[in-house]
Design a protein that fits this description.
The complex is a heterodimer. By secondary structure, chain A is an alpha+beta fold. Chain A is built from 21 helices and 21 strands. Helix content of chain A is 60%, strand content 14%. In chain A, the strands form 6 sheets. Chain A has a 6-stranded antiparallel beta sheet with strand order 2-1-4-5-6-7, with helices on one face. Chain A has a 4-stranded parallel beta sheet with strand order 19-20-3-21. A 4-stranded antiparallel beta sheet of chain A has the order 12-11-14-15, with no helix packed on it. In chain A, helix 8 packs antiparallel against helix 17, helix 9 crosses helix 12 and helix 18 crosses helix 19. In chain B, strands 4-3-2-1-10-11 form a 6-stranded mixed beta sheet, with helices on one face. A 5-stranded mixed beta sheet of chain B has the order 5-6-7-8-9. The model of chain B has no long low-confidence stretch (mean pLDDT 94). The chains are: A alpha+beta, B alpha/beta.
């Protein structure tokens, strides 16, 4: 941005003023109070202060520029170039506030934020940079340099440090002071508070609190924890009181219940022992009386029964005798009947024996031994034949001419074989092969044994077998076996029939049996034995019972007489007992009644005793509980009220902790930034500064000498260091101006930029003023420079476009 | 017989208000007694027959004797037939002990009846055709309500009115998450077969808009006691006619109100609105807990103190919490205020990059301004 023209209409004490600027150097000359400062402020505000302000901001920022002569509106117009094109900016503050930016293309922007955004693109630096460096009286920079004079800053070791400090503290904020202040704040909040554990240092809670250097967080923590402890204590006390009251109420209720019982049943308990004795007596009398009544009823009954039994006894004895006779008779009839039945059965058996004997006699006899002999002969013959066939002979017969031969193998019949010339035939046999031809004969036998002897044995065996078969008139072994089986069957049948007969007869012979049934006669009217026996058993049982009853009744009656003499005497005894029972019951009725539902006196006495003991125990317990309750002091504030306080203190703690954490975070970020701020970044300024100083000192000084943190002198071009009072005001201004121009170079990278300065060399000696003026003229070739001064001589030195304010 | 009943509860006389400044605390403590006096005066003006305190007349069992005597004497000023005081869970009856109610009795007239037992009280001797069925509290906490005995009690038909009085929470209405404040349900209450129930414990009035079918009434506290109790003080005047028709009228009572407001502010206009929000004279007796939050532009932020001072004058007591208010500091603001590459510029820019650093940004800004002064 290059400024072309500014119009104040009105602004502060100036009703109307137009000022024109050119590229390069502009010197605004005006006496003190002529309005230079007003122009300076109007320039600043027209660029940076929006027209529509809240009342508060208007009051703070613009109120002092309200025209003294009247009116409530102030207005400034600014013409400027950006990218070599003309722009027009107008701002009016007050009730009729408005802002307007006219662009080169004729468009007009009225929206403040759009205007601000546009202006930002026109300006080479931010508002803050302009306010601190590019449009400021040099106080900020000078203050930094003054500080070097007053304070021995350990961190400032070189010109780089100075420059770094100059840039970092451009806004008048001392980093050291900031850090000190931050540390103070941090300590205010975090003293004795461990941010990592989020708990008091050393774990010292309210039970062992820190007394000194208690930070805000710790204090808020102690405050809330104290109330929390009070709340918990109050809650516990309230619960303890509740429990104590509950115990007392329950104990009291139990005590009252028992007390009522004990009181209500005291007389009954007192009478209980006597009741117990009376009840025992009444029970005994009752038992006696019951006995008397029973005997009284029983005695005549027994007498009658005894007489009745005595009357029945002869009849039943007679009946038993008669039944015994009938029984003997019936048993004889039964015996006869059984003998007849046995005889009939045995006769049948005897007939079976006779038949079997007949069959056996008619059967062909072939015994076991006979059969064994036949079987043995048969086996002998078979053995010999097997022996004959057991050898192995093989004969091959080859015929030269046609021939018919007879071939006999072993005992087989001969057979003929016909062979053609050249043909051959093999023959196999056990012990012999015999070949016969009408012209010749040949016999081949095996060398094992004598074949002829064997044949002879076979013939002998065959004859022996044949003889045996003929002897027993059978044709074969199979037939012999069949006849043998028939013979054996007949023999076994006879044996079985004989055994059956013998069994049925037992010890008796058939003849004896036959003889015993010859004289049996029928007994008319005889009852079956079983019926007679049953009647006899019943009659005998009846007889036994009557005898037993008679004995028993007599015994009881004897006892009655022994105890009570006679029924009349018994009646008298009974009457005495009834009177006694009445008397005892009367005494019992006079006693206090037992509790409802209780019958057992002993149980009542025991229960009453236990209730009395329980009452004593509960009275003691109640006293102890009341003492315990009296020892609990109710809380001064209820748990609910303390809970409300605790909620509020929790909120306070959260607020303080959050604030503390914010400070902690600032510290972290500030520390991180300090570590990253590299002074090398600013060393580019050093050559600028030294060049400017060299120019302002006629090239007498080429460098700045730094001793520790203090610039102690300028290094001359010949290398000698001139120990000057470097920090005299005039020298300081040289350094300040050099620093200012260097920083302007640092911030204003684009050529279309302006720099505003106010009396830059007021305290310099004339020689340096001239050099400084030359320096500014030189500088204004690269940037638009607007210099305010009240010194015509300085204006004269600088030249440029002079603007005079009257 | 027409019956007019005045019902209040939860006066919590003797509450200490320890977390308030002295002059506020004294006013709050005194206000509760003044409210009781005004309740009795109101009941007298309305010619009520019966004055019921449904529990927690006192804040705790260890109330100062002077306060007990003063309460007893104040209730003695009631000109109707009878004052019935039910011990609640804060001023419960301690069994078999000389306690606040013994002392209260010593200073009460003949027409004040403290209910100590769970039994039917015939009020015939006070010329009231009423049988009273109370559920007095015998401890601060109880998971069982005190009205369980009433359901099976035979109701005497010769008596006109059967009135229940109890103290505890009501399911669905009262906050009692652990069920430790004598919890009751509507079924519990209606199942007792009484004409009407007067309840205490919950500080809010119930029902909110009574109808002819309502038979359960919470008076609510007649003098609010904290920021958890943001409604006005209330009491009931209940008429019961010969046909047992019920007409309940809610009356506003009490001196102070507690208001807990959370307000978000973003602009100067919001701050201006805040300044006038509590301007009505009604707020002169309001204790205001004002929690404001938001990020404010510079001028609005700077006017917070003025706003606070103004509101402090408008209300009885102001608990001001602006801990969640921060100055709105944007990168544009930082560029306007600080020179590029300067320490403040660098620091604030670094803190402005992360949203979660907004409080740190605020702290840093204030520290920078302090150092720059």
């Amino acid at each position: 941005m290059i400024l072309s023209r500014i119009t104040l209409s009105p602004f502060a004490g100036i009703p109307h003023l137009d000022l024109n600027f050119t590229d390069g150097l502009n010197v605004i000359l005006g006496a003190n109070e002529a309005g230079k400062s007003t122009v300076f402020h109007s320039l600043y505000h027209v660029i940076f202060t929006e027209a529509k302000l809240t009342p508060g901001r208007f009051k703070k920022l613009m109120n002092r520029f309200i025209p003294l002569g009247g009116g409530d509106t102030i207005a400034v117009e600014l013409e400027f170039k950006h990218k070599n094109a003309d722009h027009f900016l107008k701002r009016k503050w007050g009730p009729a506030a408005e802002a307007q930016l006219k662009l080169p293309n004729g468009n007009i922007i009225s929206d403040e934020s759009t205007i601000a955004e546009y202006l930002e693109t026109c300006l080479s630096a931010s508002e803050g940079t302009y306010r601190a460096v590019l449009m400021t009286q040099q106080t900020g920079l000078t203050a930094t340099l003054e500080a070097l004079k007053k304070e021995h800053l350990e961190t400032v070791k070189s010109l780089g440090d100075i420059l770094k400090t100059a840039v970092l503290e451009t806004d008048g904020v001392s980093i050291e002071k900031f850090k000190d202040q931050l540390e103070t704040q941090f300590n205010d909040y975090f003293s004795h508070w461990d941010p990592l554990k989020n708990y008091p240092d050393g774990g010292r809670g309210i039970e062992k609190p820190w007394k000194k250097q208690v930070g805000k967080i710790l204090q808020a923590y102690y405050d809330k924890e104290s109330v929390r402890a009070a709340f918990e204590k109050a809650f516990q006390i309230e619960e303890a009181i509740d429990r104590a009251n509950q115990n007392i109420a329950e104990t009291k209720k139990a005590k009252d219940d028992i007390q009522r019982y004990v009181a209500a049943n005291k007389k009954a308990a007192d009478d209980a022992q006597e009741r117990k004795i009376l009840l025992a007596q009444i029970e005994n009398v009752g038992k006696d009386l019951a006995e008397y009544k029973k005997i009284n009823r029983d005695w005549p009954v027994r007498e009658n029964t005894l007489q009745d039994l005595k009357r029945k006894l002869p009849e039943i004895e007679k009946e038993v005798e008669e039944l015994k006779q009938k029984k003997t008779q019936a048993e004889q009839v039964e015996k006869n009947r059984k003998n007849v039945e046995k005889y009939n059965a045995v006769s049948s058996r005897k007939k079976h024996v006779n038949d079997a004997e007949k069959n056996l006699k008619s059967a062909q006899v072939l015994t076991e031994e006979d059969l064994s002999a036949i079987d043995g002969a048969f086996k002998q013959l078979s053995l010999l034949k097997t022996e004959l066939e057991a050898g192995k002979l093989s004969v091959v017969f080859e015929a030269k001419t046609s021939v018919i031969i007879s071939v006999t193998k072993d005992l087989e019949e001969p057979r003929e074989e016909s062979l053609k010339p050249g043909g051959s035939q093999s023959f196999e046999a056990g012990g012999r092969i015999k070949l016969d031809h009408p012209d010749w004969g040949m016999e081949v036998t095996s060398g094992e044994g004598d074949f002829a002897d064997l044949v002879q044995k076979i013939d002998a065996a065959d004859k022996a077998l044949d003889n045996l078969l003929k002897k027993h008139c059978v044709g074969s072994l199979e037939e012999a076996k069949k006849i043998h089986r028939a013979y054996e069957t007949c023999r076994r049948t006879l044996k079985t029939a004989q055994d059956n007969l013998e069994t049925d007869l037992g010890d008796t012979s058939f003849e004896e049996l036959e003889s015993s049934i010859k004289d049996v006669a029928e007994l008319p009217g005889a009852e079956p034995t079983a019926d007679v026996v049953e009647k006899l058993v019943n009659a005998q049982h009846q007889l036994d019972k009557i005898n037993s009853d008679l004995t028993q009744q007599q015994k009881v009656l004897d006892e009655y007489r022994q105890k009570y003499k006679d029924p009349d005497s018994l009646l008298m005894t009974m009457t005495d007992s009834i009177q006694k029972a009445n008397e005892l019951n009367k005494n019992l009725d006079a006693l206090s009644p037992m509790p409802d539902g209780i019958e057992d006196v002993d149980a009542f006495i025991e229960a009453y005793k236990q209730k009395q003991e329980e009452l004593t125990r509960l009275n003691e317990a109640l006293k102890e509980l009341e003492i315990e309750r009296a020892g609990i002091r109710p809380p001064d504030q209820s748990a609910e009220e303390l809970q409300e306080q605790l909620d509020e203190l929790n909120d306070v703690f959260d607020i303080v902790l959050r604030k503390g954490r914010a400070i902690l975070r600032v510290r972290e970020v500030a520390d991180e930034l300090s570590g990253h701020l590299d002074q090398q970044a600013f060393l580019g300024l050093k050559s600028d500064i030294e060049r400017f100083i060299s120019n302002m000192t006629d090239h007498r000084y080429e460098e700045i000498k730094i001793d520790k943190s203090i610039p102690t002198g300028f290094v001359r071009s010949d290398g000698n260091v001139i120990e000057t009072d470097l920090l005299s005001t005039g020298t300081l201004d040289v350094l300040g101006l050099a620093l200012r121009l260097s920083m302007a170079n640092y911030f204003l990278k684009e050529p279309e930029a302006f720099l505003v300065m106010d009396d830059p060399f007021v305290d310099m000696d004339p020689g340096r003023q001239s050099n400084a003026a030359n320096l500014l003229k030189e500088y204004s070739k690269t940037k638009q420079l607007i210099v305010f001064t009240c010194h015509p001589a300085h204006a004269e030195l600088m030249g440029g476009n002079r603007v005079v304010i009257d | 017989m027409f019956l007019r009943i005045f019902c209040t509860s939860d006066l919590h006389l003797g509450m200490k208000f320890a977390n308030y400044p002295d002059h506020i605390r004294e006013s709050l403590v005194e206000a509760r007694f003044k409210t009781l006096e005004s309740l009795v005066e109101k009941a007298n003006r309305e010619k009520c027959d019966l004055f019921i305190v449904a529990g927690d007349l006192f804040d705790r069992i260890s109330v100062a004797k002077g306060d007990i005597a003063r309460a007893a004497q104040t209730l003695g000023e009631f000109q109707g037939h009878l004052v019935i005081v039910l011990p609640g869970n804060h001023d419960y009856i301690e069994p078999d002990k000389t306690n606040l109610w013994t002392y209260f009795d010593d200073h009460s007239g003949d027409r004040t009846l403290v209910i100590r037992e769970k039994r039917v009280f015939s009020l015939a001797s006070y010329n009231l055709d009423i049988n009273l069925y109370p559920g007095p509290c015998h401890a601060k906490h109880s998971s069982e309500n005190a009205i369980g005995w009433i359901r099976d009690v035979e109701k005497d038909d010769s008596v006109k009115h059967h009135i229940g009085i109890a103290h505890g929470s009501l399911e669905g209405f009262s906050p009692d998450f652990d069920k430790t404040y004598y919890p009751m349900t509507v079924d519990n209450l209606l199942g007792c077969g009484l004409d009407v129930w007067f309840l205490g414990h919950t500080h809010m009035q119930y029902p909110i808009t009574p109808g002819t079918m309502d038979h359960i009434f919470y008076a609510g506290t007649s003098e609010p006691d904290g920021f958890g109790c943001s409604h006005e003080g209330k009491a009931w005047i209940v008429d019961i006619d010969g046909a047992k028709n019920i007409a309940a009228g809610s009356i506003s009572t009490g001196t102070f109100r507690f208001l807990h407001n959370h307000i978000e502010v973003r602009t100067m206009d919001d701050i201006e609105a805040l300044k006038t929000r509590y301007g009505d004279s009604d707020f002169k007796k309001t204790l205001l807990k004002l929690k404001i939050k938001g990020r404010l532009p510079e001028d609005a932020y700077n006017s917070l103190t003025t706003a606070r001072e103004k509101i402090e004058k408008q209300v009885f007591f102001l608990h001001w919490d602006d801990s969640l208010i921060t100055r709105e500091i944007t990168p544009t603001d930082i560029n306007k205020m600080f020179s590029k590459d300067s320490f403040p510029h660098t620091l604030l820019m670094a803190l402005s990059r992360k949203e979660e650093d907004f409080e740190a940004l605020q702290e840093a800004y204030e520290l920078i301004n302090e150092v720059r002064k």
